[in-house]
Amino acid sequence: MRIKTIEKQNIVDEVYDQMKTNIVSGSWKPGDKIPSENQLCQMFNVSRVSVRSAIQKLRAIGIIQTRQGQGSFVSQSINDNMVDNFIPKMNLSEKEILDMSEFRETIEFKCIELAVQRADEEDMLQIENALNKMIANKDDYKKYSEADFEFHLAIAKASKNDILFMVMKNTKDVFYHYLEELNRVLGVNEESLQGHIEQFQALRNKDSARVKANIKQGMDENMLKIRERMGR
């Protein structure tokens, strides 16, 4: 079994790739029980969040099956071609993702600027509650995505601008689908969680520039990952 310590920035993808390699190479055979989360954390020298996200991605494409109280197992009849074909496909076009980025930099960033000036303790509590829901649901990309949208909507509400809040609220279907697709295909990773924690802290410190820079960095990194998957 080939295992190497993870050092690259994109930790979840690295764990995912190494686990997939062990399956394709036959180190982990169909039906085999894979190492426990604690063992994988030690093998890769990464956090439990990263390991769980990688397992979640493998489970989503049918390579890994998790049995309650027993652990995770390699699915039956796995081969190289199947693994390559099981890579999750993004159900959003590049233009749709870029359109959402432009929307966020125009509407959401203005909400952030106003929220920093106008948010009260009740607003900050709602934002924090959404953040805590994200942390609690980091192993379920759908629930995580719902809480992710609630986090950004709470910031819009804190702007105290009813029109901006209404615009954000009315984009729920599109915005949530965008977040859900990113989290489904790229996986819920530690960088995403940490980014939202830093955004909340920056809001507390009334630093709108830092909040916007953090979101912009996340959007740019996600776009790079998606283009890599598209072979660009």
TrEMBL record:
Fetch the SMART domains from UniProt: FCD, HTH_GNTR
Do the record's keywords include Hydrolase?
no
The protein's name in its UniProt record: GntR family transcriptional regulator
Which SUPFAM superfamilies is this protein grouped with? Answer: GntR ligand-binding domain-like, Winged helix' DNA-binding domain
Organism source for this protein?
A: Paenibacillus ferrarius
Entry keyword annotation includes DNA-binding: yes
- Segments forming domain HTH gntR-type: 9-77
* GO MF terms held by the record: DNA binding; DNA-binding transcription factor activity
Q: Which InterPro entries match?
A: GntR_C, TF_FadR/GntR_C, Tscrpt_reg_HTH_GntR, WH-like_DNA-bd_sf, WH_DNA-bd_sf
Keyword terms of this UniProt record: DNA-binding, Transcription, Transcription regulation
Question: Per its UniProt entry, which superkingdom is the organism in?
Answer: Bacteria
An example Pfam family from this entry, by short name, is FCD
Residues spanning the signal sequence: none
